[in-house]
Amino acid sequence: MSTDSLSATDGGNRDFAVISAVSIAHGVSHFFQLIVAPLFPWLKDEFMLSFAELGLLMSVFFVISGIGQVLAGFVVDRVGPLPVLFGSLILFLLSTLVLASAQGYVGLMAGVMLAGLGNASFHPVDYSILNVRVSQARLARGYALHGVFGSLGWAFAPLLLVGVATFAGWRVALLSAGLVAVLTLALVWAVRDALQVVPQAQPAPQAGQTPVSVFAFLRLPAVWFSFAYFFALAFALGGVQSFGPESARQLHDVPAAQAALCLSLYMFGSAGGVLVGGFMLKDPDKAERVVAIFTSLGAVLAILLGLLSWPAWFVPVIFSMMGFCWGYTTPARDLLIRRAAPPGATGRVYGVVYSGLDAGVAIAPAVFGLMMDAHWPTGVWLGIALFQGLLVASALRVGRLGREAQASAAAAR
After folding, report:
1. If both were cysteines, with which of 46, 125, 290, 412 could 332 make a disulfide (CB 3.0 to 4.6 Å apart)?
2. How far is CA 398 from CA 104, 132, 222, 282, 329, in A?
3. What SS3 state is found at 133?
């Protein structure tokens, strides 16, 4: 076997190890986003809580995560992603111990805050590792699997937590979630050498130039258009996740059990779309075009679902189609954000732009809930389509700015 073949094999093995470990860790972060919500029935009875108090736990989780994500990006750029990843997984473990031993609402809130802080760092960590440690040829596929495992984390959390709580109680269910964190810590430790990334220093200023501030990236328009992209993405997704099934039930007389299935089919469709999108995207320069086309298709489906009458059996099919369109754009959007990050600022850029996800998820349910209270289920789908339109505009702008930045960098060299 030639030296080149050996090198390719070694690179492939490293890519596999990195993508697998980072994707599983990402799935665990999504798992912990639902660490409390599936247990609401048990917690409500145990501590005599209102639905508002239970909802506040989730709001606090995402507020802590959103603020922490911005700060985590700076930490990742300073010390590297691997130590931050270990710290996040330890915070997840601690959160389960605090939650499982809670004697009241204060204990629940403390545990949720720890979990939100643990969740904060995953996007800066994950993409800082993937962008450096995975070969360019496999990067889109790495993004795809990263997204798929995130969806699987959402799907696995209710299954484990509700299943264990039903037979052994909610405290044991939370301890079983802690075991998930322990196993992930062991996996990351086993492949730690493959995940190691040396922090990249800022380019040294030339003679007579002023040193570049660590906050200089905040002056880049691409960063804020990327933030707007993720805010709109989370707002649209928040509408689907919170009131999509119920609004579809009211509009199309979908049976309750079938309405619950709609969201699962949306997530499975999304996972399939992520996989197909990652393997089909060959040219990174076409990323914004992919986002624009498939997001527009999703918006059209949302409008049709809201304005036209459909047989109840076909509504879950529409959900799966919308999920596929959303998932297909995921690898492309990650390539877009990668182009927007200047050298040495990857963690900070991802921290800021992905905090838009937390902001959108925190606000969207309240807005769409008002529409449902006003007996306007059609408004849910029109609102989802509106924010998908904003997604398209933001993606096209980010793509243009990214190409301009690359052209300027090439001209400077």
Report:
1. 290
2. 46, 22, 5, 19, 14
3. helix
